[in-house]
C-alpha cells in the first residue's frame, strides 16, 4: 500500500520502543485504553469517525457536530445532516475480555473489522478520523509516526487529524487540521471531476 505523508505531525511520541522507556505509565495507559467512536457516512466518497470525549456533554456534542459540518463544507461536502443516533464503536468490547495481544493491537484489529463491515455496506473511498487517544491505535504500525494521510490495506484512504473536542478547546488546532486535510480535499475534488 502506498503512503502519503501530510505536512504537520499531530504529536510526537515521547517513548522510544526498545529503550526501556516504556515505563509503568505506558502500561497504565495501555490497560486503561477506552474510547468511543461515532461513525458517519457522508457519501460514497467520504465517511467520518469522530472520537467522543469521555466527559462529553450534550452541548459539546452539538458544538462538535456544527464544527464537523463546517469542516465538511470546507471540503466541498455540503448538505450533511448528522443522524442524532449515529452508529458507535466502543472499546473495550467486553470487560474482563482476555486478549492475545496488547489492548492497542486488539483495538486496532477491532476497529479494522468494524470499518471493513462499514466499507462493504457504504462503499466509501476516504475515511476522515477526528482522533484523540485512538490516534496512537490507528498509527501504531507506522514507524515514522508522521503519516496522517495514507492508503489502508482495505482499499480506502485514511486521514487522521485532531479530535473535534480538542479543536473546540484549543482553537489554534484548526489551522493544523486544515493542513492535515489538504491531501484529502484534493483527492475528493479530483474524484468529483471524474
Envelope shape: globular
For the biggest β-sheet, the strand order reads 1-6-7-5-3-2-4
Radius of gyration using CA atoms only: 17 Å
Strand content: 15-25%
Q: What distance lies between the first and last C-alpha atoms, to the nearest angstrom?
A: 23 Å
* Average pLDDT: 80
Chart the SSEs and their pairings.
Blueprint: E1 3-4, H1 24-31, E2 35-41, E3 46-52, H2 58-74, E4 87-91, H3 103-122, E5 126-131, H4 134-139, E6 149-151, E7 157-162, H5 164-169, H6 173-180, H7 182-193
Parallel strand pairs: 3-5, 5-7
Antiparallel strand pairs: 1-6, 2-3, 2-4, 6-7
Describe the structure.
The chain has 194 residues and is α/β, with parallel strands linked by helices. The protein is 40% helix and 19% strand. It starts with a strand and ends with a helix. Residues 1-27 have low confidence and may be disordered.
Task: Provide a brief overview of the structure.
40% of the residues lie in helices and 19% in strands. By secondary structure, it is an alpha/beta fold.
Key features?
194 residues; alpha/beta; 7-stranded mixed β-sheet; 40% helix; disordered N terminus
Amino acid at each position: 500500500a502506498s503512503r502519503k505523508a501530510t505536512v504537520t505531525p499531530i504529536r510526537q511520541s515521547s517513548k522510544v520502543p526498545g529503550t526501556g522507556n516504556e515505563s509503568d505509565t505506558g502500561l497504565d495507559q495501555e490497560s486503561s485504553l477506552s474510547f468511543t467512536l461515532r461513525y458517519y457516512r457522508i457519501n460514497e466518497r467520504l465517511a467520518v469517525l469522530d472520537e467522543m470525549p469521555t466527559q462529553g456533554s450534550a452541548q459539546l456534542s452539538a458544538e462538535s457536530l456544527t464544527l464537523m459540518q463546517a469542516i465538511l463544507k470546507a471540503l466541498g461536502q455540503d448538505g450533511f445532516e448528522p443522524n442524532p443516533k449515529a452508529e458507535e464503536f466502543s472499546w473495550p468490547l467486553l470487560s474482563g475480555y482476555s486478549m492475545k495481544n496488547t489492548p492497542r493491537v486488539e483495538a486496532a484489529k477491532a476497529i479494522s473489522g468494524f470499518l471493513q463491515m462499514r466499507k462493504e455496506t457504504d462503499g466509501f473511498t476516504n475515511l476522515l478520523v477526528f482522533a484523540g487517544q485512538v490516534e496512537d491505535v490507528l498509527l501504531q504500525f507506522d514507524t515514522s509516526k508522521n503519516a496522517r494521510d495514507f492508503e489502508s490495506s482495505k482499499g480506502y484512504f485514511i486521514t487522521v487529524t485532531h479530535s473535534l473536542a480538542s479543536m473546540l478547546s484549543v482553537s489554534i488546532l484548526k489551522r493544523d487540521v486544515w493542513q492535515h486535510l489538504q491531501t484529502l480535499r484534493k483527492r475528493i475534488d479530483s474524484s468529483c471531476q471524474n
